[in-house]
Amino acid sequence: MRVVIAEDAAMMREGLVRLLTDRGFEVCAAVADAEALRAAVDADRPDVAVVDIRMPPTHTDEGLRAAIDIRRDHPGVGVLVFSQYVETRYATRLLADRPAGVGYLLKDRVADVADFTDALIRVASGGTALDPEVVGHLMRAGTGVAELTPREREVLALMAEGRSNAGIATALVITPGVVEKHVANIFAKLGLPPSDGDNRRVLAVLRHLGG
């Protein structure tokens, strides 16, 4: 799997390169700013890009804006935002238009290397990987979840982590049948009818962001 890394902190950047290389990933570029990220993706066409949010020159939201450009110009490239910060404005745009192949993890909440690499593989394969704290911020910033019960919101957060119904049942100590009922209720309340062309589990997490 081919990866481009965009991280302005040199030690973090080199650490990610070593971590991924040691685990069999091919790091085809490791850059320190958003323009270099765009150029690297244009040149190397990786499977996935790992992108920090705050990079030169202003150290505000360059990474997220670059991620949006990459998703527009290279729809086959997955984007995993990896940052200390939750930035809802551009994150909403990144996730709402086409959530498949997008992830957003917080650096200080990734305690296990395997969790990070699993998320990277999932995003590169067209799935999603969202930290529950990020989901919470985006839910508060968006609309469409006011009707969900507290338990349905818990199920929704676990869906955002990419868990199956069985995985959700284990995490919440409930039966898979109960999870199925909660998931059906979520689909109904968010107005997501069955569709051959859409992944309702992904849309259920992110549909409200379009509002």
UniProtKB/TrEMBL annotation:
Q: Which residues form the Response regulatory domain?
A: 2-122
Q: Which UniProt keywords apply?
A: DNA-binding, Phosphoprotein, Transcription, Transcription regulation
Where does the record locate the signal sequence feature?
Answer: none
Q: Which Pfam families match?
A: GerE, Response_reg
Residues annotated as domain HTH luxR-type? 141-211
Give residues where 4-aspartylphosphate occurs: D52
Question: Which SMART domains does this UniProt record tie to the protein?
Answer: HTH_LUXR, REC
Family matches, as InterPro entries: CheY-like_superfamily (IPR011006), NreC/VraR/RcsB-like_REC (IPR058245), Sig_transdc_resp-reg_C-effctor (IPR016032), Sig_transdc_resp-reg_receiver (IPR001789), Tscrpt_reg_LuxR_C (IPR000792), WalR-like (IPR039420), WH-like_DNA-bd_sf (IPR036388)
The keyword Repressor appears for this protein: no
Protein's name according to its UniProt entry:
Response regulator transcription factor
Name the source organism. Answer: Paractinoplanes lichenicola
